[in-house]
C-alpha cells in the first residue's frame, strides 16, 4: 500500500511542473544572471518572470517589492534586524508567544542585547488579545512581528487589522506568512503590511528558497552585504533554478487556491470528524473558526505523541507531533503551553497537515488506522484504566515532567 504523507506544514513535495521549469537552469541556462553571454541570456528573464508570478500571488503593488532570500528563516531575521537598524532609538519589539523559532529565538537573543520583547499571549484557542496589543503599541516599538498562520495549529491571526494599528502608531509591521502563502488569499497592496516572509518548500517549490516582501516606501537595511543583487537589498548570486521553481509554484498555488479552501478543507474536516467520532478523550486544538484549510492538530489525551507517530509510521502514515520530544526535550511544544493545553493532552498532540495531493481514500485509511492505535497505546498508559482515565492523572504526571 502506498504511503500517506500528512506532514505538509513541515515541508511539501515539489510539484512536477516546478521541477520541469527548474531543470534548464542547471544545464543550458547555468550562467550568472549578471553576466553578458549566452549562458546567462535567459536567467535574468527567468528570475524577472518569477518575481512577477510571486507578486501576483501576494497581490503586491510592484515586482520590485519581492526580494529573494535563502529561506523563511532568513526573511524573518532580515525583517526584524532591518527595523532595529532603521529605528536605532527604539528598543522594543512586539511579537507573540507562539511564533516559529525563526522569530522567537532571534527575539531571545535580542533580549540579551538590551531589547525588550513583548510576547503577546494567546487564549485556550490560540487567539490574541487585541487590547493587550493596542496597549503595547508605543513610539518605543521598532517592529511588530506576528505570524499570519501558526505552523502547529493553523490558527490565523488578524494581521491585516494589526498592521493597520501598527501603521497608525508609526510602527513597522512584519508577518511570517510561511504557512499562509498559497492557502490564504492575499492582496498586500491593500494592506499596511511592511514586510512578509515566505518559504518555497511549504508550497511545492524546493527547500532553500525564500522571499522577503518589502512594501515600496518602507524603510529597510540589508542583512547581507556584498554584490548588488536584488537591488543591493540581498547580496549573493541568485539561486536562479529555485527562484524559477518558486515562481511556477506560486502560479500553481493561485490556480489551486479555491481547491485548497474547498476540497482540501473538506478532507481535513472529514479526517477530524472521523477521528473524533471514534476516539474518546480527543479534541482539536487552535481556533476552529479561523484556521488554515489543511491543518488538523488533534490532542489525544493520556498517550505520547511520539509513540503515536511511530505506530502511524509503521502503517506508512507520516504526520508530526505537537510535542518537542523529537528535539530531545520532554516539554510539550511552546504553542501548546501558550494555549494552556493540560500536559496530559499536550503530550499527545498530532499535527496532520494535508496538501492538494491527498485523496479521500487516504483520509479514510487514516480514519480507520488511528482509533485502534490510540486504544492500544492507552492500554499501556499508566494514566488509563479499565474504564478510561485514572483519577487525577495530572497529579500522576506532575513529578515526571516537573
Ligand atoms: C511559520 C514558519 N516560519 C518560518 C519557517 C522557516 O522556514 P525555512 O524552513 O524556509 O527557514 C517555518 C518552517 O518550518 C514556519 O513554519
Ligand atoms: S510526546 Fe514525547 S515527551 Fe511529550
What is the topology?
Elements: E1 4-5, H1 16-22, H2 41-58, E2 66-69, H3 72-86, E3 92-96, H4 101-112, E4 116-120, H5 130-136, E5 141-145, H6 159-168, E6 172-176, E7 195-199, E8 210-214, H7 240-278, E9 282-284, E10 295-300, H8 305-314, E11 317-318, E12 320-321, H9 334-338, H10 343-346, E13 349-353, H11 360-380, E14 384-385, E15 388-389, H12 393-401
Parallel strand pairs: 1-11, 3-4, 3-5, 5-6, 6-7
Antiparallel strand pairs: 2-8, 7-8, 9-10, 10-13, 12-13, 14-15
Helix pairs in contact: 1-7, 2-7, 7-11, 8-11
Can you give a write-up of this model?
A hairpin with a 2-residue loop joins strand 14 and strand 15 (388-389). The radius of gyration is 22 Å and the shape is globular. The longest helix has 39 residues, at 240-278. The strands form four sheets. A seven-stranded mixed sheet has the order 2-8-7-6-5-3-4, sandwiched between helices. With 402 residues, it is an alpha/beta fold. It is built from twelve helices and 15 strands. The chain binds pyridoxal-5'-phosphate (PLP) and FE2/S2 (inorganic) cluster. Residues 304-306, 321, 323, 325, 330, 332, 347 line the site of FE2/S2 (inorganic) cluster. Residues 304-306, 321, 323, 325, 330, 332, 347 line the site of FE2/S2 (inorganic) cluster (FES).
